[in-house]
Amino acid sequence: xxxxxxxxVYYEDTDLAGIVYYANYLKFIERARSEWVRxxxxxxxxxxxxxxxxxxxRRIEADYIKPAKFDDExxxxxxxxxxxxxxxxxxxxxxxxxxxxxxxxVTLVCLNEAGxxxxxxxxxxxxxxxxVH
Length: 133
Hints:
This protein has 133 residues and is α+β, with helices and mostly antiparallel strands. It is built from 3 helices and 5 strands, in the order βααββββα. A 5-stranded antiparallel sheet has the order 1-3-4-5-2. The model has no long low-confidence stretch (mean pLDDT 94).
């Protein structure tokens, strides 16, 4: 299942050349991941309060293909590639219409309040990958 998140490029997102500053793509995909999790019915504040679990980025492999520019309307697509007991791997693409601008493979891990690895609760795993659980 793919999730889509729409956004617009603002002046503050760009550099002197008028293109999106490279680090801002990471912000764009972070927002999209938060909305993806929310769309699955996972409330991250409640997950932390009730289970002491948070998601953290462990690894990102990113490719910058074409620049986005001021005032562009973009879509971030998020797709689950894999999930295990304590890890989630996502593919995230940033597009302008159907033109691919940026792509990333993001590995998330679950951590407890002490920052140690933790397993995802079964109900969260069912929401993230219902076809598997």
